[in-house]
Amino acid sequence: MSTPLNTVEPTDSDLKVEAYIKEQAELDLLRFITCGSVDDGKSTLIGRMLYEAQMIFEDQVATLRNDSRKQGTQGGDIDYALLVDGLAAEREQGITIDVAYRFFNTEKRKFIVADTPGHEQYTRNMVTGASTADVAVILIDARQGVLVQTRRHSFITSMLGIRHVVLAVNKMDLVGYEEQTFDGIVEDYLKFAEKLQFETITPIPLSALKGDNVIARSSHMSWYKGPTLMGYLETVKVRTSQVEHPFRFPVQWVNRPHLDFRGFTGTVTAGVIRPGDRVRVLPAGTEAVVNEIVLYEDRLSRAEAGQAVTITLDREVDASRGDVLVAADAPAGVSDQFDSSIVWMDQEHGFVSRSYWLMIGTARVNATITEIKFKYNINTLEELHTRDLSLNDIGRVTLAFDKPLPFEAYRDCAGMGAFVLIDRFSNHTVAAGMINFALRRAANVHRHALTIDRAARERLNGHQAKVFWFTGLSGSGKSTITNAVEQALYARGIRTYLLDGDNVRHGLNRDLGFTDADRVENIRRVAEVSRLMVDAGLVVITSFISPFRSERDMARSLFDAGQFVEVFLDVPLEVAEARDPKGLYKKARRGELPHFTGIDSPYEPPAKPELVLRSHEMTVAACVEAVLKLL
Fold first, then answer.
1. Domain 242-327 falls in which CATH fold?
2. Is 546 annotated in the active site?
3. Is 580 exposed, middle or buried, given 0-12, 13-18 or 19+ CB atoms closer than 10 A?
4. Is the pLDDT of residue 372 over 90?
5. What is the per-residue pLDDT across 411-450, written as a single tens digit (0 to 9) for each?
6. Which of 242, 328, 343, 486 could form a disulfide with 280 if both were Cys (CB 3.0 to 4.6 A apart)?
């Protein structure tokens, strides 16, 4: 039989290439991080591994040699750290700032390594790199021993669920390859790590610069009988794949290109799904059967963890972005309150009662820190009482959401238990967190339906209920104007109640001071009381400095549209201070009143208040008239 035209028989070389590609595609993937204190040699170690694994090209080697002569730290010899330290600021300072990811492979495994920064102020970068890792290589400078950052990174590594750790005691060449030095460091570290949740800790003495025990066994440390670093990474057995977990599929968007097709698009977080499998939509609880699994024009027989697909169901269900499709016979939990571990990542402190956006999977909800249980002393792992969280603090908190969320504990399914908190105004990521467990009281506490509701009370009163939220500096005229407003409303037969800042602090809030944490809690309580009074059908007038936008925004979120009227008394600081009716500014200037708004504590003006009053330019009567027009 003749060979068809345009058909070329594969050569032996072609077959070898195909076989090699197939072999490489079948290698499993290990993700690992390198972490530790500053200048422990993390970047040098990764650079050495890439170099010796022959994962850089000849032109890159030439560039590396040239850069090493100009910017290196090894006296003209190759500085392997330059392969990884990509930012100019890093090369100039000889430190790692950003998280650098590198891919390489050997004949036994594929690797993605994250080189994470050592400085404390870049702890958040380290959290990012560790969040997807299977193994942590924690470097220790043999000359320095176990340092604070070693403990910090080890604790974060444990908290993020990494169970296998390499204790890489680096720079052994600088301590004469002494076994005693190595043993002492290992003993110190193992004592510290007793309280951490590692399954294995593998100590390895090495010199990243000289190559000792990195890939080849060192001739300088015949006393060491364990594996080389590369030998360990090629053979370590990591945690069970999420493919074996029950099916979890956060809905990213509802795919409806035309009237005859409606599917749910997203990435499978865990498990396997097939046509015919029964699923449940959470949090609603509706059940359906998978009809098709679609990938562009293909219909798949299955999809597993890590695959992005579109799933169609056998019937119409109410599901949208943020909902989760789960295995009907093994559903996830649903709750609106959680015990969580968090790493604080922002310069602005975190306080009890402050609200944030919370992103988990594809969902975004309002979240409030309702309790800070403690933060950790990284050196001793002691649990310390605190009322706020500052940059790089690691703590345990209780979070409450404005609606129930599907979830799993982070240790069981990271994709269903990891979240970030985002500042509602700046859009900065302020914290990364992990759900530990739901709080039972969240499921046991239910709202009781009342026969007499707000609408009925409003009909009885003859007017709508509202809250007029007056905010501004001390001395801006809040108390004077709110008192006059209430008199005017009372004269019109409108039922009111005035919540004045000083009066409330004599009773409900007398346990609170004037720190930022206390101010946040002060406004939370007032907002909740205002909501109860509005539910009673009253017109509520509040007179509080309420200096932070976040808390005023939280207060607004408690009310229906049109119920919350923010009135900003826009008075310059110098005018308010000149008035100083209570002599508070004078005391603050003398240092007798710490945390005084406008002096040593900030005031954040409203972005879009319903009404702005400039009481230094308007009479009290004019201010009252402007407020009454909004009623």
1. Elongation Factor Tu (Ef-tu); domain 3 (2.40.30)
2. yes
3. middle
4. yes
5. 889 889 999 999 988 888 899 999 999 986 544 555 667 7
6. 328
